[in-house]
Amino acid sequence: MKDLRGKKAFICDMDGVIYHGNKLLPGVKEFVNWLREEEKKFLFLTNGSQRSPLELQQKLARLGVEVGKDHYYTSALATAGFLAQQQPGCSVFVIGDAGLINALYDGGMTMNDVNPDYVVVGESKTYNMDMLEHAVNLVIGGAKLIGTNPDLTGPTENGISPATGALMAPIELATGNKAYYVGKPNPLMMRQALKRLESRREDTVIVGDRMDTDIISGIESEISTVLVLSGVTDEKEMKRFAYRPGYVLEGVGDIPGLAEK
Q: What global pTM score does this model have?
């Protein structure tokens, strides 16, 4: 565990790593306390786009963990940053919730349901057939298709829920256009995380519960990886992949004790 002990910065996924729905996972408080005691830099990096950093901060506070909003980075923020670089001041039609819409507004984008430059899709509780049909016709009419992340599912207290990749699939199939996904495993999001942490990849580790996003993100960005079995991927599922994580743990609560050995 010498390699893990020497890391100066931790990038941590949230769903399935820190919590399930509104349930804090075991060992999270101890893990966050250890990060602070050891003066580690850390960033909660989530492919979720529904909540803003302030909302994520308040959610963790309700669960009993106090972490400032500067420690959160979402796929909504990454998507807004990407579009601001690609086409400053562009217009968008959005299927998504407040966290995504606010991030796009803050990034200088405007909402447009007539002839937008982009159709942007994230997780949404209000997803419906009217939105889907409108998005399809906008893409056929020339709008470019952007997804906040490619996740097909996400963990909840009661099992799993369809995520952005699943909501995007009908639009891709109906238009014949493939979306560009900004969130993990796109290395773009990992580079942004390193910049925010002001950390080198050699000094950083990513902790996640998904082989197909978190772990492959770390491998392709040459960042050490820790898979926790508290979320989507279990040991049986892990063995299906051609790559493997650096460490496999039951949950983040295992990290402080192992890092001290």
A: 0.90
